[in-house]
Amino acid sequence: MLRLRRILRLVCLCCFSLVPAWGSADDIVGSLDTVGSDTMAELMLRWGELLGQEHPGLRVQMQASGSASAPTALTAGTALIGPMSRPMFDEERADFVERHGYEPTRVAVGRDALVVVVNRHNPLRQLTEQQLDAIFSDTRRCGAEAEITHWQQLGLEFPAGRIHLYGRNAVSGTHGLFRRKALCNGNFRVTVSAAPGSAAVVAAVGADPGAIGYAGLNHLTADVHTLAIGPQGAAVSPGPQTLRNERYPLARELLLYVNSPPNRPLPPPEQALLDLILSPRGQQVVAELGFVALPVPELEVQRQLLGLAPFGAVESSPGSS
Question: Which of 109, 194, 202, 233 is 20 to 30 A from 56 via CA?
Fold first, then answer.
């Protein structure tokens, strides 16, 4: 299992079947397919494991080929649940509505952040949003006056020379959201080296003193450190509180899009998975994997969107304090 989780962090595709040896009295049989975000691959894996423990007759398959694959699968009907680390684009949602005649249900299941990382030996500690755009983009739509291609332009003597850029591939939700938030919908430089996963970005930056990259918050290692983002003297670092109050400019929600027809219940497998995810037990997994869990009041709101029963008396949820 450790080997499988390591693979999940390094590649964009995960497909597996879970058939554990025990279950619950009200067992659910059948199959369940999800298609979408690689950022959420390990989350979906852990949730699938928990669901499989409760229902040994349930076959769970999860394909983590990138957020861009979720709308396609939902529209085509090959999956009813699509994990995404970015919101659907307008055209993706329009295609779904044209096919099905109703909107997909958007459900928040946790909070995350895009983090900008440099090598642990790099003395840089913060960037303005304009500097960040000028480093990664050749269009500079966020307002920078000139491109930034060398570390000396940021006042650094070390590292010296050209800035080496690392990011995600185009099918990833991380790529799309960084483009929208950090580049003001501008274009990436062609010199950005695209990696299949955030772990690969972090590994590359950790091995290269002259590198900078962007990745998901939960993939950090001791070989890199994050940069605060914002105006000089008021830059904000990523953390649980700044993600909750959205002060950190690259905060994001982790989402599930669900093909849930109006006035019609979801099939039992999908309903069971969503019930688990939007529970304190499911949110414990969110916290364990380095994301920020939703507090109980927010979980109740998300459950109402899906017509799931309320918890009843629940004292607390990971990350709710």
Answer: 109
Output the DSSP codes for 189-238.
PTTPEEESSHHHHHHHHHT-TTEEEEEEGGG--TTEEE-EESSTT--B--
Structure tokens at 285: 């997994």
Q: Which residue from 58, 73, 61 is spatially nearest to 33, judged by alpha carbons?
A: 61
Residues, the chain: 321
What is the Cα Rg of the chain in Å? 20
The CATH 3.40.190.10 domain(s) of the chain lie at: 2-104+259-277, 112-251
Give the residue carrying structure tokens 């960037």.
Answer: 127
**Fold annotation for 2-104+259-277:** D-Maltodextrin-Binding Protein; domain 2 (3.40.190)
Backbone φ and ψ for 107, nearest 5 degrees, come out as -125, 125
Give the pLDDT of residue 21: 32
Task: Give the separation between CA 161 and CA 273, rounded to whole angstroms.
Answer: 50
Average pLDDT over residues 175-202: 96
Q: What is the pLDDT of residues 1-38, one digit of tens each?
A: 433 444 343 333 344 344 333 334 467 999 999 999 99
- The answer to whether 271 and 30 are in contact (CB under 8 A) is no
Please give the Cα distance from 21 to 1 (Å, whole number): 16
Residue 92 pLDDT exceeds 90: yes
The angle formed by the CA atoms of residues 56, 318 and 287, to the nearest 5 degrees, is: 70
Q: What architecture (CATH level 2) is domain 112-251?
A: 3-Layer(aba) Sandwich (3.40)
The predicted model scores a pTM of 0.84
**What gap in Å lies between CA 251 and CA 181, rounded to an integer?**
9
Name the pairing type of β-strands 211-216 and 105-119: antiparallel
